[in-house]
Please model this.
Amino acid sequence: MPRALGTLGLAADQRLRHIAWDIGAAALAEALAQRLGIAVVACGYSRLVIDCNRRLDDPSSIVESSDGTRVPGNLGLSDAARNLRVREIFAPYHAALAAELDAASGAAGPGLRPALIAIHSFTDVFGGHTRPWHCGILWDRDPRLARPLLAALRAVPGLVVGDNEPYSGRHPADYTVDTHGERQGRPHVGIEVRQDLLADAAGVAVWADRLAVPFEAILADESLYGAAAIDGDRR
Model:
């Protein structure tokens, strides 16, 4: 959290909960990127300051309460305070992501588009309910990454893989892939991994390997990078 905002009025144990950050997601993204030889763009600030994966007009952009925990530092914010967070955190993150993707598009050649992989993690217990999934694949109208990835992961014995579970890529809150993937015609997918499975380096390594193997094959298919394939029934 920015020093100027202190702790947003939250105790240390609250700031370590899933409400404040996607536990293990950055480590997984970096490990997967190293395996695949691709770039990572990560937001270095807590989602409680501003959620960079939400539209600015979404009530969950800057939350006053999350999973039963009030966030005192977000109560009664002025427009100026909100705009400062947009200017200092939200806008630079999305500008950096756009620049990275634009550079990759230029390097790929005319008519070709780089792929966007969004990495998130989810808590195993939310709202008092235990979640059964080990991971989830989030997508909407473009199945180019999602469908082969779903098939590969569901072939792993004992792995419970959600198709748009526990969150959905069809939800308008999924700002990053909507803005930098879908609207640009780039192949894209959102990946959610359960946080208790990313609690240590060993768990991160397991999931980096588990995702890298199918992605190495999927991303090697040059037909992936042309015009977006829109699937009408999204199934």
Q: What stands out?
A: The beta strands are 65-66, 69-70, 116-122, 125-126, 129-130, 135-138, 161-163, 188-194. The mean pLDDT is 91.
